[in-house]
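Field reference: sequence -> structure
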Amino acid sequence: MAAGKIKTIVLFGAGNLASGLAPVLIRKGYRILQVCNRSEAKGRALARKVKAEYLSDPRKVTGEADLYLLAVSDDAIPGLAAKIGKKQGIAVHFSGTRKGDVLGRISASWGVVYPVQTFPAGRPAGFRGVPFCLEAKEAGTAKLLAEFAGKISGNVIPVTYVQRKTIHLAAVFANNFPNFMAAIARELLLEKGLPAEILHPLIKKTLAGLREEDPFRNQTGPAMRGDRAVLEEHLAMLKRHPSFEKIYRVLTENIIQFKKRDGKLQGTA
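Structure field:
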């Protein structure tokens, strides 16, 4: 694109990220020209919300936008990029794992803006303060995208592709896995007629401790104590759930190895 500020946008996708991001873009003074989405109902609804044109065919999007935002799933990015065709504006995706150069099919000016945040359905998408990891092909593009991302979050971090992938991997451990652990805990309680809410104070305290520099310093439980009797009893209780038993065993062994690494625990579970 020609030198200057980003003003106009074409948004691809109408899922959780796109739906949360679009109203923020409007409030920040950007104009969304078109919303392109396979699902007509969701695409039209989002387009109507931001007073944009709806399109289902990416091959028909305008070539006049300053920015083309691909807020779609990782797997959909390459195919979508191939269909959009060459544009003069900057092409951007939000993936933590996809390479940026796949956007070269759209524009010589491309970048990646990876938000280190989760966007579950049905919950407000907050962006202020969220780390936006920025990677761009050219310095000029990086400058424009840093200004763009800065307006949205105020927290822009330049990264390489390897760094971005590492952050994404770490985010899976920090968010996706603990969320699933909480889901397992809920199932174990409910099947015994116990309320899941009984764990809420514990979860709240755990989350507070995760903000410390070294969360492992807060690690407690039978694995840390080397309490073999309790560990065996827990494993016996999980016999009805072989997959949960396997998870418990793997996590227990890794907690013990973490502590062994620091020379603090002798013996095994």
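Note: Residues 265-269 have pLDDT under 50 and may be disordered.
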